[in-house]
Specification:
The chain is of the alpha/beta class. It has helices at residues 13-21, 34-46, 60-71, 85-88, 93-97, 115-124, 152-164, 176-183, 187-190, 222-231, 240-250, 254-274, 296-304, 336-348; strands at residues 53-57, 76-81, 102-106, 108-109, 112-113, 134-141, 169-173, 198-201, 212-216, 280-281, 289-295, 310-311, 324-330. It contains 14 helices and 13 strands. A hairpin with a 2-residue loop joins strand 4 (108-109) and strand 5 (112-113). Bound molecules: pyridoxal-5'-phosphate (PLP). Its cofactor is pyridoxal 5'-phosphate.
């Protein structure tokens, strides 16, 4: 009953096997190994983007920050929602890596950026000439931090607004696979066909030990990205172990299979919870994350039964037993429906 996050679970066994297998013999370092050539070719196929520049880093924060630094000037502002990982959970790394770009927070609906709010936020910048921030890239997250998912057409609407102002767009895809499975579209439709310029393509939350790819559909800034990655201390010398993980992730569509499992667990959990009168969903779960409100006494019961998850807005143990509190429940690929059933059984008892 581990629903605290999708990074608390194990890496998939075939990924660990691939790392062990990569541990033989000698090879070029720093991404010049044959494994990286295979990863690059495969990701270009997967994204139908033969020209794309592709790099690996070991954390999502590095992927987002170095990608956004590459798209920004130090005097720019990056447009994102308030709950964006780059705003709430990266300790100002995008501002640091960009050498001073700031973030402008844009209104949202269920963590999805609102087109009107984006247009207004962009229009409001640059009114102070040399004295104010200049307009920089737009960054959105799919699946969002609240477990909602943008469709390709919703993404196109936002990138269209960015393009009206000549701005680039970045997609934080820490849960890219979960969003893709949820939408049933292709990786190209979710990204460059919808106007996205750069993607952080997540792996760690979906079964890798620690690898995220950065994909730049326009290779113009590839060299700059490489320099920023090295200067930012994210160019791994024993890079073969990063490539091996990503290769295993893409083989036989393991990445899609794992995301489908996580989403299925989440759907089962949501269905079972819906049967409870006292449970209210903050938004309809669309991928592998649930935000739901229910009374403190039910939280207490679940936590005492061994369920692990974050209570978002209060102390589950102290206070009025009937006061509703919000649970964030995240399903990883490994929990399986047994985990969901155990949680639902504990809820019923
Ligand atoms: C987890 C996560 C990341 C990456 O986080 P790291 O801890 O740096 O790997 C990025 N974006 C989102 C939306 C996430 O949930």
């Amino acid at each position: 009953m581990f629903f605290a996050s999708d990074n608390g679970g194990p890496a998939h066994p075939s990924v660990i096997e691939a790392i062990a297998k990569a541990n033989g013999g000698y090879t070029s370092a720093y991404g010049a190994e044959a494994g990286m050539d295979r990863v690059r070719s495969r990701l270009r196929e997967v994204f139908e983007a033969p020209e794309a520049a592709i790099y690996l880093v070991a954390t999502g924060t590095a992927a987002n920050s170095i990608a956004l630094a590459t798209l920004s000037n130090p005097w720019d502002t990056i447009f994102c929602t308030s709950m964006a990982h780059i705003n709430e959970d990266e300790c100002n790394a995008p501002e640091f890596y960009s050498g001073g770009a700031k973030l402008t927070l844009v209104g949202d609906q269920d963590a999805k950026m609102s087109p009107d709010a984006l247009r207004a936020a962009i229009a409001a910048e640059e009114s102070r000439g040399v004295h104010g921030a200049q307009r920089g890239p737009v960054s959105i997250t799919n699946a969002t931090e609240k477990g909602t998912v943008y469709s390709p057409s919703e993404i196109s609407t936002l990138t269209g607004i960015a393009q009206d102002f000549g701005l680039k767009t970045h997609l934080d895809g820490a849960r890219f696979a979960n969003a893709l499975v949820s939408q049933g579209c292709t990786p190209a439709e979710m990204t460059w066909k919808a106007g996205i310029d750069v993607v952080s393509f997540g792996g760690t939350k979906n079964g890798l030990m620690g690898v995220e790819a950065v994909i730049l559909f326009d290779p113009d800034k590839a060299w700059e990205f490489e320099l920023r990655r090295k200067r930012g201390a994210h160019l791994f010398s024993k890079h073969r172990f990063l490539s091996a993980q990503m290769e295993a992730y893409l083989a036989d569509d393991l990445w899609l299979d794992l995301a489908a499992r996580a989403n299925a667990t989440c759907a089962r959990l949501a269905d079972g919870m819906r049967a409870h009168d006292s449970v209210e969903f903050l938004h309809e779960p669309a991928a592998n994350i649930i935000f739901a409100r229910f009374p403190r006494k039910l939280h207490k019961k679940l936590l005492e039964a061994g369920a692990q998850y974050y209570v978002w807005d209060g102390d589950a143990h102290q206070g009025d037993p009937d006061e509703p509190l919000t649970a964030r429940l995240v399903c990883d690929w490994s929990i399986g429906t047994e985990g969901a059933e155990a949680f639902l059984a504990a809820m019923r008892d």
